[in-house]
Amino acid sequence: MRLLIVEDEKRLAVSLAKGLRAEGFAVDVVHDGLEGLHLAGEGTYDLIVLDIMLPGMNGYRVCAALRAAGNDVPILMLTAKDGEYDEAEGLDTGADDYLTKPFSYVVLVARVKALLRRRGSAGASPVLRVGTLTVDTATRRVHRADTEVALTAKEFAVLEQLAVRAGQIVGKPEILEHVWDFAYDGDPNIIEVYISALRRKLGAGTIQTVRGAGYRLVAL
C-alpha cells in the first residue's frame, strides 16, 4: 500500500518513512502543506499521515480541502499541541484519527494499520483468494493450500498488487507506483527480481508474463 507523509520536521518524517517502508509500505514524504495537497490530489494513496503545523498550508486546511474535493483517503493527523479543541477541530475537518506528539512509533503503526483495516472492511474482504493461494492483507500472511509461505515485505507488496487484480494484466508502472515511492529512480526491471522470487516460493506457473504488457496472477 502507498502512504503519504506530510511533516515539516524532516528528521521525524525520514524516521517514520524508514520504519513504514520496513513494514512493507511504499512511502512518499513532503514537508509543505501545499505540496502535500497537490500530491494527495494527484497521487493514489491508501492513507495520509498529516501534521497540523505546516508551512504553506496547515493540516486542517489540507484535510478540509481534500474532503471538499471528494477525496476520502484515510487521514491520520499529527500535532505537537494537546487539547480537546485541537482534536475536535481536526476530526471536524474530516480526519479519521488523531495522534499527539511525542508518540510511540509502535502506536503510530498500529493506528495506520487499524485505519487501513477499517477502510478494507467497509469494502473488499482483506483476504484475497486465488485458487489455492490465500493472501491476507490485514495480517500480511500468505498460504498455498494449508502451507504458509514466508515472504519479505517487498515480495508481499508485489504479490498484493497482483492479487487484487487476479486474472488481469498488471503493468510494471502500476507495480512501481504502489510498491516503490515516487522518488525511486532505479531500474524498473527490479520488479523482475521480485517476480522471480515469488515464482520460486509460490510455483512457477503462478505468475504469467504477458510480453510487453506486464504480469498476471492465475489460479492453480
3D structure, described in words:
The protein is of the alpha/beta class. The protein is built from eight helices and eleven strands. It has helices at residues 10-22, 33-42, 59-68, 84-92, 105-122, 153-163, 172-179, 190-202; strands spanning 2-6, 26-30, 47-51, 75-79, 97-100, 127-130, 133-136, 141-144, 147-149, 207-210, 214-217. A five-stranded parallel β-sheet has the order 2-1-3-4-5, with helices on both faces. A four-stranded antiparallel β-sheet has the order 6-7-8-9, with helices on one face. Strands 10-11 form a two-stranded antiparallel ribbon. Strand 1, helix 1 and strand 2 (26-30) form a beta-alpha-beta unit. Helix 6 packs across helix 7 and helix 6 (153-163) crosses helix 8 (190-202). The longest helix is centred in the middle third of the chain and has 18 residues, at 105-122. The protein is elongated. The two termini are 25 Å apart. The model has no long low-confidence stretch (mean pLDDT 84).
